Amino acid sequence: MAEHKEGAWGSVLDWLGGIAAFLTLVVFAVLAINAHWDFLGDGVIYNILVVVKTWAPLTVVAITALEFCSGKSVLFKIIFVLIGAIVVVSMFFPETWEKVIGIITE
Q: pLDDT, tens digit, for every residue of 43-65?
């Protein structure tokens, strides 16, 4: 985490990014330990952690990228949001990603 961020949201995003990154590592560690000793079972907590494991890295990347975009031009932010939307859509619909790659490689 840097000491000075541009824009009003820079320090807030820096703080949120640090917390999100730490919690992401904790979730991955708990699930790795659970894979060996199976102390969570197949209950609700395990299912929540699996969902968090899926979305937490994307959240960390999004917060970090928004922190980077803080203080940049509006065009730069729009490009970032469009790329982020493509990533999220490809997570829900993997075949869409294959089509996009197919168009690019033609």
A: 899 999 999 998 999 899 889 88
Task: Kindly give the interhelix angle for 10-37 and 44-69, rounded to the nearest 10 degrees.
Answer: 150
> Does this model's pTM top 0.90?
no
The widest CA-to-CA distance across the chain, in whole angstroms, is 50
The structure tokens listed for 88 are 């999220």
DSSP 18: H
Q: Could you tell me which residues come within 8 angstroms of residue 15 by beta carbon, excluding any fewer than 6 positions away?
A: 1
pLDDT (tens digit, 9 = 90+) per residue, 67-84?
888 778 889 888 888 888
Element containing residue 13 per DSSP (H, E): helix 10-37
Handedness of CA 5, 62, 65, 72 (dihedral sign): negative
For residue 72, what is the enclosing H or E element? none
